[in-house]
Specification:
The chain is mostly helical. It contains 19 helices and no strands.
Length: 358
C-alpha cells in the first residue's frame, strides 16, 4: 500500500512539473509575441521620423529609445538597414546616434548577469563598429564572469578596432579551448603581420605558441623570421612545439640548412630520445619532413625509421622513400634484404602503391 502511494505521489509530482513547464512555455511564447508586437507598433508609429533620420541624419525626439524593447526595435531596424545599405565614412548618420544613445545602454548590458545578453551586446558593438567602447571591452576581459567565448569575441573586436595593446593582452588570454584559440589566431594573423607574432613568440604561453604554428601551416605563411623560428623550435625542450615545427616545415617543404636538420635528427636517434612511446608523433613528422624535402642526405634517417616499431612511423618513412628519385628501387632492396620483417613488409606495401614522385 505504501509503495502504491509513493508511486501515485511521484506521478502527481511529475504531472504538476509537466503542467508547470507547459504553462511557462505558453507564457513565454505569449510574452515574446506581445513584445514583438510592441516593437512593431513602436516602429510603425515613427516610420516618417525614422526615414528622415536614416536619410538626412535628423534625430527627432520621437525616435530616442527609452525602454528596453525600444532599443531592441531600433537594433532590428538598423541591422536590416546596414545589411542592405553602406554609408560613406563621413555621411553615416547612425554613428553619432549609436554613440549617444546606445553606448550607455551597452555599457550596462556588458555587466549583465546573463551570458546571452552580454554576447548579444558584443554582436551589436561589432555591427555598429563602436570603437568608443574599447576601454569597456578591456575591463570585460578581466571580469571573472567573462567566458572563453566572450573573450574570443572581445579579442576580435579589439583587433578590428586596431587596439594598440592587443599583443600585450593576448600574451595571456586565460583559459580558452584549443579550437577557439586556433580560430582566434587565424582571424588575427596573416601574411602581413606574421613577423609581429614571431617577434612576440617567446612571450606567448604554450597554448598560443601551438595555435600560431597551426595557423602558419594552415595558411602557408612565409617569412625569414618565421623560418628561423621554426628551425630553432626543432631543438625546443617542449615536445609539442618540436612536433608542430616539424609538421609545419614538412608542409612548407623547405629548411635553410639540410645538414643542421640531419645532425639534429641523428642526435635524437643516438641519444635514444626517440625510443620512448610518447615520441611517435615526433618520429612520424620527422619522416614526413624528410619525404617533403627529398634530399639524399636524409636517406639514412629514413632507412632507420622504416624499421620503427610503430606502424604509422615506418609507413610514413616508406612513403617518403617512395617519393625520392629511385625510391622504388630502394624499397625493393629493403623488402628483399632488411633484417627487420616489419621493414620488409612495409617496403613491399609501398612498392605496390602509386608513386607521388618518380
Amino acid at each position: 500500500m505504501t509503495s502504491l502511494l509513493i508511486i501515485l505521489l511521484l506521478i502527481v509530482i511529475l504531472l504538476v512539473f509537466l503542467l508547470a513547464a507547459y504553462v511557462y512555455l505558453v507564457w513565454q511564447k505569449t510574452s515574446d509575441r506581445r513584445r514583438a508586437d510592441k516593437k512593431k507598433r513602436w516602429l510603425a508609429e515613427r516610420t516618417s521620423s525614422l526615414e528622415q533620420f536614416l536619410f538626412t541624419g535628423y534625430v527627432a525626439r520621437l525616435i530616442v529609445p527609452v525602454k528596453e524593447y525600444q532599443y531592441e526595435a531600433l537594433e532590428d531596424l538598423l541591422s536590416d538597414f546596414l545589411a542592405n545599405y553602406k554609408f560613406d565614412k563621413d555621411e553615416d548618420p547612425i554613428r553619432d546616434f549609436v554613440d549617444q544613445f546606445f553606448v550607455p545602454q551597452y555599457k550596462r548590458r556588458l555587466r549583465h548577469r546573463r551570458w546571452s545578453v552580454r554576447m548579444n551586446t558584443l554582436y551589436f558593438i561589432d555591427l555598429f563598429n563602436i570603437k568608443a567602447m574599447q576601454e569597456d571591452l578591456h575591463m570585460q576581459l578581466s571580469d571573472k564572469r567573462t567566458t572563453p567565448e566572450e573573450s574570443f569575441e572581445i579579442y576580435l573586436l579589439l583587433a578590428k578596432f586596431g587596439s594598440a595593446d592587443l599583443m600585450q593582452l593576448i600574451r595571456n588570454p586565460g583559459k580558452m579551448p584549443a579550437f577557439l584559440l586556433t580560430e582566434l589566431v587565424s582571424r588575427l594573423m596573416n601574411q602581413d603581420n606574421v613577423d609581429r607574432f614571431i617577434d612576440e613568440f617567446n612571450r606567448f604561453d604554450r597554448s598560443w605558441q601551438g595555435a600560431i604554428l597551426e595557423v602558419v601551416r594552415d595558411q602557408n605563411l612565409r617569412s625569414e623570421k618565421l623560418q628561423q623560428q621554426l628551425e630553432e623550435l626543432l631543438e625546443s625542450e617542449n615536445r609539442e612545439l618540436r612536433v608542430k615545427s616539424l609538421k609545419t616545415l614538412a608542409s612548407q617543404g623547405y629548411v635553410s640548412s639540410i645538414d643542421r636538420v640531419v645532425r639534429l635528427l641523428e642526435r635524437y636517434g643516438e641519444k635514444g630520445k626517440w625510443d620512448k612511446p610518447e615520441t611517435i608523433g615526433e618520429r612520424l613528422m620527422a619522416a614526413r619532413l624528410m619525404g617533403s624535402i627529398r634530399d639524399d642526405r636524409f636517406m639514412p634517417g629514413l632507412k632507420r625509421l622504416i624499421a620503427d616499431r610503430a606502424y604509422n612511423v615506418r609507413s610514413e618513412a616508406a612513403k617518403s622513400i617512395r617519393q625520392y628519385r629511385g625510391g622504388k628501387g630502394i624499397l625493393q632492396n629493403i623488402a628483399e634484404s632488411h633484417l627487420d620483417p616489419y621493414a620488409r613488409s612495409i617496403a613491399q606495401e609501398w612498392m605496390e602503391r602509386s608513386p607521388d614522385y618518380d
